[in-house]
Amino acid sequence: MNAISDTELHRRHVIIAMWLFGVIAMVFAMVVLGGVTRLTHSGLSMVEWRPVTGWLPPMGEAEWMAVFDKYKLSPEFQKVNKHMDLAGFKAIFWFEFLHRLWGRLIGVVFFVPFVFFLLRGWLNRDLTRKMLLMFVLGGLQGVMGWYMVKSGLVDRPDVSQYRLTAHFSLALVIIGVIEWVALGLLFKYGSKDGVARPLKAFAMLVFVWAFVTALSGGFVAGLDAGFAYNTFPLMDGAFFPADLYQLSPVYLNLFEDILSVQFNHRILAEALLVLVAVLWFRARQSDLTPRASLAVNCLAGVVLIQVILGITTLLLVIPVPLAAAHQAVAVVVFISALWTARELA
After folding, report:
1. Could you give the percent of the chain with pLDDT greater than 90?
2. Rounded to whole angstroms, what are the CA distances from 27 to 58, 73, 127, 175, 277?
3. Over the range 64-86, which residues count as b (16 or more CB within 10 Å of their CB) and which as e?
């Protein structure tokens, strides 16, 4: 095999990285669309999972009625939407259909270029393994999505908050893996001059905190906890509500008690704002590269926007556009935190 020049290798890496960033953009759009699907109560409209044959929507009135009849057997129709007609069903069906269709398109956009790059010899063994990991994670996400939907098709017309959070967290993991690989193709990884070891560790702490805060938001969404206690900064008339952590065993309050779950998310988000502010001030005192400084500044900006957006969404009792934006910016915070941690590593 002929050796290639550094210039050609860099060109190939840039092309692959741009493709991966495009995939990240598609996954980001998938998360936003999934949030809108959940907020509009559309996610349980499709009661079957057809990963191979589900590319096309119902064609013709007979097919629409057949799909609607299957939905009528679901707990959501029988307990919530029993007066819904076919037109109303179509309105919620399209959100979920587009969500699933977009997931399939992501698979195509990933797989076809991957095979092309592989056949052209642009991927070494290490890159190939990483790409295969991404592909497997994407497939698992599809399975996890259906596993989540199934939880709302049994007894109660709501998906499990555990499965919803797992679905969201896996999306973040996928984005994180792709982002790390794409950045590695563009920029050399390693210690940067002027970055003290404590600052590097602190940046990683901020990233982990951002991830945990996002997951706590998943439990808020899964329990519809945002529709309760719509005041700020007090909650149920106090900063520390009297009925916090009443479930036993106590760890269940992290996942199942509406009051405690919303309180936890507030505290985590407020703490993240403080941590990022400290990171920003400490970074200003260090001799960072321009790219590292940009990453820190972007992180500080998006976290501030996210906190303001979260408070506004809460006070206005979760309007769909603001709630969807809040989830979208949560992903941007995660991406920015990972970028910052890598730049300071």
Report:
1. 85
2. 25, 32, 20, 7, 28
3. beebbeebeebebbeeebeebee
pLDDT tens column, 137-171: 999 999 999 999 999 988 888 899 999 999 999 99
What CA–CA distance (Å, rounded) separates 182 from 234?
42
Give per-residue burial for 247-269: e unless 16+ CB within 10 Å, then b.
eeeeeebebebbbbbbbbbbebb
Inter-axis angle of helices 61-71 and 86-119, nearest 10:
100
- Output DSSP code: residue 5: -
Place of tokens 């998943």: 218
- Identity of the residue numbered 145: G
Question: What b/e string do you get for 20-55 counting C-beta neighbours within 10 Å, with b at 16 or more?
Answer: beebbebbbebbebbbbbbbeebbbbbbeeeeeeee
Give the pLDDT score at 319: 95
Distance CA 142, CA 105 (A): 12
**Residues linked to residue 238 through DSSP beta bridges, in sequence order:** 235
Tell me which residue of 339, 338, 331, 333 sits closest to 28, measured CA to CA.
331
Given a cut of 70, the residues of the chain with pLDDT beneath it are 1-2, 189-194
Structure tokens at 178: 């792709």
Read out DSSP for 52-96? TTTTS---SHHHHHHHHHHHTTSHHHHHT-TT--HHHHHHHHHHH
Per the DSSP assignment, residues forming a β-bridge with 235 are 238
Burial of 57 (0-12, 13-18, 19+ CB in 10 A): middle
Residue 190 pLDDT: 52
Task: Enumerate the domain spans of the chain.
Answer: 1-186, 190-345
Entry pTM? 0.94
Residue with tokens 């997931």: 103
Question: What's the CA gap between 279 and 202, in Å, rounded?
Answer: 7
> In terms of Cα–Cα distance, which of 182, 144, 204, 160 is closest to 20?
182
pLDDT at 25: 98
